[in-house]
Amino acid sequence: LEFRRVLSDLLGQKFRDELLSRGDSRDPMTSVAAVLAVKNLHRAKSRLAATLSTAFEGDDPVARGSLVLAMFLDTVDALRGAGISRLVVVSPDDEVLAAARHSGMRGLSESPHRAPADAGLNSAFVEGARWAREAWPESTGLMYVQADLPAATSTSVAAVLRAAGEHRSSFVTDRDGSGTVLLHGTGTGVP
Question: What does the pLDDT read at residue 51?
Fold first, then answer.
């Protein structure tokens, strides 16, 4: 709940009022800003350590990091293929930030001083949302995307955005329904 309140506050009343008063008719896919958050590559996907250790004869943080980086870049390709060009990633990992810059997106170094150690990806999403709101004030929507969605395609992302456009806020859960992989909001509904 704190995450949603902070993100809603970031948009500000002025932005909400402006969107509602002008009846914005821009294509929602091209006017959405997407924020992705990626952990440190060598600590990511630790739950896969046992599986990968069988395949690689021992836990290999580099292999796990390579997997995460590949999934991140596939997710970015799916977002771009759906027409989303306003992309920012927040990460403490220099390799992730270099890959982001190389692919033409903005990479923000996660500030360790802004959030408690147990804040997880939420603090990175807040930081990215703040930056996106300042950099792209004309965006009509903000989307928070888990960066490791290997099954995401541009077609599926476009379908989600079309369906999300009918609601002030929406989300997509993981397969089990226990986690959020995408959170989207527009106008006063931005979470």
Answer: 54
Sign, CA torsion 95/99/101/107:
negative
- Nearest CA to 137 out of 8, 3, 11, 6 is that of 11
Q: Torsion angle, CA of 79/80/82/83, rounded to 10 degrees?
A: 130
Residues 6+ apart with CB under 8 A from 46: 64
Please state, in angstroms and as integers, the Cα–Cα distance from residue 160 to each residue in 93, 157, 165, 175, 181, following that order: 29, 5, 9, 15, 12
Confidence of residue 134 (pLDDT cuts 50, 70, 90): very high
Local structure of 27: helix, strand or coil: coil
The one-letter amino acid code at 158 reads A
Exposed/middle/buried for residue 74 (C-beta within 10 Å: 0-12, 13-18, 19+): middle
* CA atoms of 6 and 177, how far apart (whole Å): 24
Phi first, then psi, for residue 67 (nearest 5°) are -65, -45
pLDDT category at 132 given cuts 50, 70, 90 is very high
Determine the average pLDDT of the residues in 172-188.
Answer: 84
Residue type, 19: L
Which helix (H) or strand (E) segment is 173 a member of? strand 169-173
The model's pTM:
0.76
Q: How confident is the model at residue 1 (pLDDT cuts 50, 70, 90)?
A: very low
Residue whose C-alpha is closest to residue 82's, from 166, 191, 162? 162
